[in-house]
Design brief:
- The chain is an alpha+beta fold.
- Helices cover 43% and strands 19% of the residues.
- The chain is built from 5 helices and 7 strands.
- The strands form 2 sheets. It has a 4-stranded antiparallel sheet, with no helix packed on it. A 3-stranded antiparallel sheet has the order 5-7-6.
- Helix 3 crosses helix 4 and helix 3 packs across helix 5.
- The relative contact order is 0.13.
Amino acid sequence: MVDEQTQLVSFSKLADDFVEKPFSPLLLVKRVEAVLRRSNPIKQTKTIIGDYTIELDNLKVLHEGKEAHLTVKEAEILHYLIENRGNIVTRKKLIESVWEYDYDVNDRSLDTHIKNLRKKIGQQNIITCKGLGYKLGQ
């Protein structure tokens, strides 16, 4: 049995929930699904970027009859870039918005996600603004 103080400390560190052992695996899955539903900011379903069709809610990219699948992080990065279309998004802001909280993500992780996104939606559609961040192409 976990004491109340331990749970309070966990919540003060921005925990969404607290599960005590022993726990039901089925209830754990349901808790995770509930958190994902609450935290998934993707609302826009279809976006056209150049000659690519992006379906964020289905995590799909369609181009010339071919389909590529996005990871959740790629979709979150792309969603944030779409929301800020026409503006330069700093690396710091992108990391804060996608990873949230005080997640200690290094620049290489973001670079890897951007590289993978470029493979899926075309190199020309994510523009690097040297020393500043990224901008979504038209």
